[in-house]
Amino acid sequence: MEEPRKEENQNTEEEKQPQGSLPVRSCMLMCLAGIYLVYTGFKLCKNVIDGVDGGAWYFMVAGIAFLVIGAGMLFYGGKGVIKDDKEKRAKAEEEKARLAKEAAEAGNGKKSISDRANLVKDLNEEAEAEEQSEETEAENTEE
Length: 143
Hints:
The protein is an all-alpha fold and about 140 residues long.
């Protein structure tokens, strides 16, 4: 019985994230891993160029591979963070606009005492007009 609940929870979590985007934490971890790979690749290449003991040609190849992979991870991780930031800002702007619209509508509901009195007066006049029309209709039906 607990298995369907777990699947439902996983489905709702997946629905929250748009397809093709990573969570911010994953992007940040990707950036950190990219920085580490770039640093390691740079150190490997530098050791081979400086002629440090044990610096063979395959360390240079590994260093270049680390540099390329690390740069790619930095690029995609940073791109994901920036994309998420833009989405958050857009949602915040939409929320501000919605709140401003609701406040404007609520502002129409806040009226002074004289405005309220005029509304009550208008409602009373409308009610009297309806009563008069009903009375005339009743008289017409009696005749």
